[in-house]
Backbone:
């Protein structure tokens, strides 16, 4: 079974995002909801927008932050599932 | 790892509906 971190994900066309400092505010035009991403969430979001797979983002995060890869992998799996549930990203 | 930034788990916050 393919790990979701190795899949390529697309940001939803309904998600209008704007970066504010190192955080992101997202307006979902489909469900009429405002969302916010913190610093690490923004790191992943920007990676997805640029076409990086989450596993590539894991490497970038571990290079820049004081954290081990397995912690980031666990966090990103949960976080991607949450973004997908809210209709903000889709597998591509 | 003294040059590394402190890490915190990614968070998605729902602010609520817009008008």
Residues:
């Amino acid at each position: 079974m393919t790990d979701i971190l190795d899949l390529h994900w697309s940001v939803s066309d309904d998600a209008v995002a704007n970066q504010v400092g190192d955080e992101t505010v997202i307006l979902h035009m489909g469900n009429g909801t405002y969302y916010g991403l913190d610093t690490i969430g923004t790191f992943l979001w920007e990676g997805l927008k640029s076409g990086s797979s989450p596993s590539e983002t894991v490497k970038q995060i571990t290079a820049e932050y004081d954290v081990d890869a397995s912690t980031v992998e666990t966090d990103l799996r949960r976080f991607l599932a949450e973004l997908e549930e809210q209709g903000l990203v889709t597998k591509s | 790892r003294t040059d590394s930034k402190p890490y915190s788990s990614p968070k998605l916050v729902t602010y609520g509906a817009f008008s």
